[in-house]
Amino acid sequence: TEIMTIIADFFDYRGWKYCRLDGSTKAEDRQTLLSTFNDPQSPYQVFILSTRAGGLGLNLQSADTVIIYDTDWNPHADLQAQDRAHRIGQKKEVRVLRLISSQTVEELVLQRAQRKLEIDGKVIQAGKFDDVTTSTE
């Protein structure tokens, strides 16, 4: 949430209206934030959320840009974040941007996450592990 606070400070400086959802957001406030942001007359231009707090069940179909600024070790968490904007009712093309500093831990995390996704894809696509392994081994 420190990075979210820095981003929020920048938005305040620019005068941009935004909604924020993180681990400190009360469950009853989540739907209000979503409804407010998705309202066609909404003054909010940006919705900042952490992938962990944003998790499942968020519908941000009025968003057309997703910026991932903090890559997760679990690649499915980032995919889930992208899917927040790819919803029924989305009328615009969705752009996904990822902010990564070169030669940093972020770059390593992204490489590992991509590798995990490749392995996951091979296992899922195959539908099973190889036929060589048996229960007696």
TrEMBL record:
Transmembrane segments: none annotated. CDD domains: SF2_C_SNF (cd18793). Belongs to the SNF2/RAD54 helicase family. Keywords: Hydrolase. Pfam families: Helicase_C. Residues 1-137 form the Helicase C-terminal domain. This is SNF21 protein. One of its GO terms (molecular function) is hydrolase activity. It comes from the Eukaryota. SUPFAM superfamilies: P-loop containing nucleoside triphosphate hydrolases.
